[in-house]
Every structure is written in C-alpha cells, then in structure tokens.
Automatic annotation (TrEMBL):
Name assigned to this protein: Radical SAM protein
Metal-binding as UniProt keyword: yes
Lineage of the organism: Bacteria, Bacillati, Actinomycetota, Actinomycetes, Pseudonocardiales
Key word Ligase present: no
Keywords: Iron, Iron-sulfur, Metal-binding, S-adenosyl-L-methionine
Gene3D superfamilies xrefs: Aldolase class I
Coiled coil: none
Length: 379
C-alpha cells in the first residue's frame, strides 16, 4: 500500500495522526486509515476520517510495530492490543496483508499479549491457516454482527460476518478465539424477537458473545440528520447506549447460555480461559450473567490496590503527575487529575483493576453505559 507523504499526513486531523492510541479494551494501532464499508455509525466520524473511503498507510508495518512496542503505554505480555479498530476494516483485501504482517511481527517477538481484531468482512480458510501459525499472541477475532438490514445505516450486510464467524469457529483445533460482537443494538431497529433469536443461534458458533449498544456521538448524530437516517435517540452520550428494557430482553433471550457478557474484555478473557484484564469483577452486578467458572477465575485474580500502588504505577506517566486517588473500594479506584482517558486505561491494565474518573461516575446497574433509557433518565 502506498505511503502518504509527510505533507499529507501533516494535513490530517490531529487524532488521525495519532497512530497509537489507548482505548478501553486495548492499545490501538491504526497506521492504515480509510474504509469502504460505509457503516453510518462508524467511530471514524469522530476522528475526522469519515470521507476517507479507501485505505492508505501513514507508515510501514514495521515502523508501526516499533512505535507500538516502544510506546510509553505498552507493557510486554500485559497490555491488550487492538489492531485497526478505529480507522479501517482489517480484512479488506488491501489491508489484510498488513494485518498479518503486524501479527507476525508481534508474534516473532514472543509477545503473549491479547490482540483483538474486530471485523465484519468475509474471511477464508487461508486466514484460519495463517492465524494458526502464530505461536505466542492471544488472538481474538471479534465478528461485528447487528442484523441491521437498512443499507443507509449498514451497507455491508451482516450475514457476511455471520458466515465468517461460523467458518472461523469451525476448526476443532485452533489457537485463536472467536467472539460474536453483537452490536450496535438499537431499540426499534434490530431488537425484534426474530433478531434476538437469530443472534442466539449464531452465538452457538462462537467461544463467547458480548452485546452492546450504539456510540451516539455528536458527529454521528449530525451525519444521521444530514442523510435522512432516523435518529435512534433524542440526545447523544459519551458512553454506549443500552436501554434497560433492551438489556432485559437480551438476557431473557439468552437465558439458556452461560457465554454471554456485557463487556468486551470479559468475553475475550473468558474465551482464553483467563481472568478479565479490566478487573470488572469488583462490580458484581456486571457478573451476574457470567459462568461460575469464570467468576471464580476473576475473583481469584482480584487484588484491591492501595493508593500508594496506584500512584507508583502512575509515576511513569508525565500526564499523570496531577493524579489524586479520591477513593478505593472493592469495586474500583476513583481518581482525579487525569485530563484524558488514555492514562486511566494504562493504570487499569497495569493493575488489573477498575480505575474510574471522578468526573464520570459509574451509576449502579448501568454497567458503565449511558444513562439514556434507564429509570429516572430520558428514554
């Protein structure tokens, strides 16, 4: 793939130039940007990348991996990694070779970090063969599936992701894991009884299933209005929106399974037989749907840090010099003085324990989601 000139890179939006960025489920590598799938709710809206519908590279794969592993947030064997999760589809024909080049480079370093690869594209037996050549990384394929059939919202049909999930889950012996990434669930759009039943049947092919709602940010709302797409909610939110009644219906539809999770890291960790690397187990209402074996695994790994331990971990980060530990309970450490999200994710993964920002409290039973659609909040 041709490299962008430095002049063109300099003209990109600031966040698009940030090849390595920490997100909640991992340190995200995005040196290839641009996607042709056109999902209306794509996070690319918020990075100023929506109009880039063809992938292009900001640097070589080798340079990108070096930037990742040399990053101040990266911890060998600890930091979960996300590959091309905010700027392109990792299995587009032009992107696929770069996806495998990055995976093979990381694996050759004998790193055992989680690597999350989120896709909705058509995968093949050759992809399975290549993934099975990796010896060290803990790779998870998360197949984005919604069942939405409105081409203005989701032009690339969901059934392709469903077939890819089935194909990649079929081998009896495989080193990678598969997750049904059931999202975005939106009331009145893809939550009929038929939608829920179809997702339940599809979940039987995956190692785990995680369900979640819509990131409905201002930029996405503006795009919906400009393109005549029905607005799903009256307001926007910084967190994903999963109304209370929708969650209840999902749990009822999946009442006979034990591999359903509310959080991505929980599903990924379960699929690999490991405790949740985000330490959600302290928030026990999150875990009421977890398999007992996974709950025990997470509880055995659960360690409540002291305030001094939190500060010790934060000392390596210049952007955390104003950090203050407000409170620590068995649920989470509450901190202030972090003026962006990224150092908080670093702390969370380094400690294996929830770290919350005092400015954005987690309300009981919302599970870290938006308040929209919950009792006492707007519908």
């Amino acid at each position: 793939m041709p490299l962008l000139s430095q002049d063109k890179i300099n003209r990109l939006p600031e966040r698009a130039r940030e090849v390595v960025e920490y997100r909640k489920s991992g340190l995200s590598l995005n040196h290839i940007q641009g996607c042709s799938l056109g999902c209306s709710y794509c996070i690319r809206h918020t990075y100023g990348l929506w109009d880039e519908n063809q992938p292009r590279a900001l640097m070589s794969d080798a340079e990108a991996v070096e930037e990742l592993v040399a990053h101040r947030y990266f911890q060998p064997h600890v930091t979960p990694i996300q590959l091309f999760n905010r700027a392109t589809e990792p299995f587009l024909p032009k992107v696929r070779p770069h996806t495998f080049a990055v995976l093979e480079n990381l694996d050759a370093r004998e790193l055992t970090n989680h690597v999350l690869v989120i896709t909705r594209h058509k995968l093949t037996d050759d992809d399975a063969d290549q993934l099975n050549q990796l010896r060290h990384l803990k790779v998870t394929l998360l197949f984005t599936y919604s069942g939405i059939d409105n081409p203005k919202i989701e032009p690339y049909p969901s059934h392709i992701a469903a077939e890819s999930l089935k194909l990649m889950s079929a081998p009896e012996v495989r080193k990678y894991r598969t997750v049904l990434y059931w999202r975005p669930l939106v009331p009145g759009l893809n939550d009929t009884d038929e939608h829920l039943a179809t997702a339940f049947e599809l979940s039987k092919h995956a190692d785990a299933t995680v369900f979640t709602g819509l990131f409905y940010r201002g930029e996405i709302a503006e795009y919906y209005k400009a393109n005549g797409i029905p607005e799903p909610y009256e307001g926007t939110a910084r967190r994903k929106i999963v109304p209370e009644t929708l969650e209840r219906r999902v749990l009822d539809a999946f009442s006979s399974t034990t591999a359903l999770f509310r959080k991505t890291s929980c599903a990924v960790s379960y699929a690999h037989g490991l405790p949740d690397y985000n330490g959600h187990v302290g928030i026990r209402e999150l875990c009421d749907i977890c398999p007992l074996s996974q709950l025990e695994r997470c509880l055995n790994a659960h360690r409540v840090p002291s305030a001094e331990q939190v500060r010790d971990v934060a000392r390596v980060l210049p952007e955390a010099r104003e950090l203050e530990v407000v409170d620590i309970t068995g649920r989470a450490a509450v901190v202030s003085g972090l003026w962006e999200e990224q150092p908080r994710y670093f702390l969370q993964h380094a400690l294996g324990f929830q770290v919350h920002d005092e400015r954005h409290p987690h309300h009981a039973n919302r599970h870290g989601r938006a308040d929209i659609g919950w009792k006492g909040t707007p519908a």
